Input
Amino acid sequence: MQKRYFFPKSQRFPYGALARSLVLLGLILSLLFPAGCTREKKSDTTTVRFVTWKPNQPAVWDEIVELFEKEHPDITIEREVGPHSSTAFHDLLTQKLKNKSPDVDVFFMDVIWPPEFAAAGWAMPLNELFSAEEQEQFLHGPVIANIYKDKIYGVPLFIDSGMLFYRKDLLDRYGFNPPKTWDEMVKQAGTIVAGESKKGADIYGFSGQFKQYEGLVCNMLEYILSNNGHILNPDTGNPEIAGDPAVRAMQFVRDNIVGGIATGGVLTYEEPESIAPFIEGKVVFHRNWPYAWEVSNNPERSKIAGKVAITQLPHFSGGKSYATLGGWQLGISNYSRNKDAAWKFVQFLTSERIQKLLALNAGLAPTRKALYGDAEILGRYPQFSEMKDVFLTAYPRPRSPLYPAISNTLQRFFSKIITDPHSDIAREAKAASREIEKILALTR
Amino acid sequence: MSGRAKRAGFYFLTLVIVFFSLLPFLWFLDTSLKTQREVTATPPELFPSGSLHSYQSAIEQYNLLHYVKNSIIVAGATTLITLIISVFAGYALARLRIKYKGVIMGSLLLVSMFPQISIAGPVWKILQSFGWLNTYQGLILPYVTLTLPLGVWILTSFFKELPEELEKAARVDGCSHFQALFKIIVPLAAPGVFTAAILIFIYAWNEFFFALLIMTQQKYQTLPVGIALFQGQYTMPWGEIAAASTVATVPLVLLVFLFQKRIIRGLSAGAVKG
Amino acid sequence: MFALSLIAPCFLFILTFAFYPIAYSFFLSLHRIIISLPGLEQPFIWFGNYKELFHDKIALQSLVNTFLFVFTTTFFELLFGLAIALAINKHFRGRGIVRAAVLIPWAIPTVVASQMWRFIFNDTYGLLNYAFFGSDTALYQAWLADPLFAFLAIVAADVWKTSSFAALIILAGLQTIPDELYDAAKIDGATAWQRFVKITLPLVKPALLIALLFRTMDAFRVFDLVFVMTQGGPADSTNVLQFYGYKKIFAEGLMGYGSTISVLVFFVTLLISLLYLKMIGTRLFGERS
Output
């Protein structure tokens, strides 16, 4: 009886529509399986598949690939474009490599990945191709980052490192020089924000990257190292985040940066979110990678074009300025079937001429030392000569094939202590150290 | 309270419900029609100038149509395969004598309930060993598994509704079970089959977790994965995200408006029966 | 035999892609498997991973978060679900459109809903800030930067998205209540509230229980919202089991250890669903009613 409530009897059913949609599905289905397993075409050109992320200046990359194909008519480059977030790109790429997929030949590696890719056997050792003399031509930091157990697994294409961007116009207005120490930066920001707010401006002191993700580790590292602290002790390799200098640096970040001069949303910021208020003119100091120079000086996107300057990141008194080493390397997959062609492409991309092109047209900082003396580049980007000093001090993050696990532990720990103002930093740091020791024990 | 005031109160309440149900979707639709500057204006601007820039950019810069194509293929194939298998199983469970029917139905229910993570690692390994990561069939097979409980439950309950006499008559006329199923039962239960199809399609269209694990190549990624991983280098491309989201949602909105009665019936058939 | 051959394909799928993987997860969880260190091979370590899981504070926190999420979302979803169901159960003009509108949040892909809410909660362009503070941008809050608000944000997004599902199931229950009962009660002089408590609630209870079962199980596997809106942060306040397991297995490559989380999650949900099914009773299977 009650069933009638559920299923009213009368209904006209669109048989025609259903039949049509089923036929459509059938058609799609029949198209599908051939599409899923295409066999390799036999032709006289080799295809090199390059896994890359969505670049900031796509036109430059198109130009470079075209140039390569013109000079190597027997090789075609097929690009696969992944997400720009380092973590998301890592997940995508490693899943391909775990799959031993032959459809990856050349790929980008973030500076922290080579040990992992080497230990897993995903990246091909390049010692025979990338000679010691050739390595000499590159900046030291990035080359070291590509070495794992005496073999080299990648060629650095461009270097990134943290730097401080600031509003030159505002600092000038208040008669400040760019800050040398973190304390100075906080004080200057306080004065400027107070002064500008009186005039009705909506402005904050600082923005950086403090969301729970890889960038948080980069940011925190710069405070800890510039207070003579360490994540891992450089000699023993043991965690040292519970050490006194590290704890004091973190306390400073929590009280004076996140809980002080930074924008309220800073705990949700990755790079794209953090630069947005800066180019809107709502932030005095901004920590970011070199690409931010291009973006913040581009009048189409930025309200502060021409008012920006850069300097080394500040340090604590008694410490030295440190910048986290970033940047991207090119690696070749061990499962690639076109290793020769792949190497030609890598060699081409990292050559002096292409690096120069990338520097001039995409603002990417070269890894070849010689280019820092190049008149054309320095004429266009005078800041590169300053950057070189930053790059020489750039410090790699802990190098370990289990870096992702270490980093996740650090991200949790950092996020916790800067988010919760009542957490006990020293105690949390000890707990995190134990976690990291456990991870390190796996590789010993 | 007078009848009129009551009525007004009721309509007001309904209006509030409708308003909040639609608000986030309308806001994204609105955002997708803004120019780049309007999207990131603070405070937000309520009314867009009707620019299609975000759609154009989502298509040209972010391969939106690619994702749409993959979603159609995966959701379409899943729907078809699940339906065929569910018709058989549903018929057997509704009409034939099978031992442990309760256990079978219960274990199906269980499959639809446990979190994907409890099978994710092994499913990934199985697909890897077949070389089926980043293929359509690699995603379709798990989807079929996950939607089968839904399909079987709905079809079983619809088949049970049909009078057994018709089928008996057909059997007397010399039809086999098989013929009876396809000549009598399925056409009669067509509304049920169609309802199941809509629900399965929506599930497969929306699924994210397995799509994220299995489709690591952009070429094969479905809409939800594409939308989740949208990110630019210097700003979040909110306009493009909103545009892609609108494109992903509009087919569903249409399905819902056209077939809301069937969907409601299908969902409740799976749940309240007995 | 014929019957068995009809359900065979169905079970072939279920066995290969559901039951076998569960057993396989258990097998993996007894090994140390690190994807990025194939040199370690895959040593069998008995319950070593489980021992570690026992001391893993983050796993504990994500378990607590998951339970908190399940409780708060199901509570509000049933509450709103009941309200919506009562509203759309009436006969009025335009009911079809109202029903469809209510269904839309349910039909929208969770990823899309997550992006929508992430945008609404945004600290500079967010609609929520605009609704609260108008054009006074200095007051704008970064909702997702606060552990409590970030958690509430994913709760709100989930409640918005799935209240309508609860409403539908409750609605189906409501429709089984014959109008005559209400008419009789009215004649006896029962107030609207009495009718609701004495007739509606008891009779709709089975539907409420089923809605509770479905919503609990679904809330337990929350992933999309966390992945898109917060990535588990800030300070792990939105880290939930399914996200933690995903990170361990697929981002950190700890296949063995991650599988212990899979197994844990499976048993917890199994336990809860059996509990519910016992409460709802065997009527669900339509055999003995």
The first helix of chain C runs from residue 2 to 29. Confidence is low (pLDDT under 50) at residues 285-289 of chain C. DSSP finds twelve helices and no strands in chain C. The interface with chain A takes residues 32, 34-40, 52, 57-58, 123-124, 137-138, 140-142, 144-147, 172, 175-176, 178, 230-237, 247, 250-254 of chain C (CB under 8 Å).
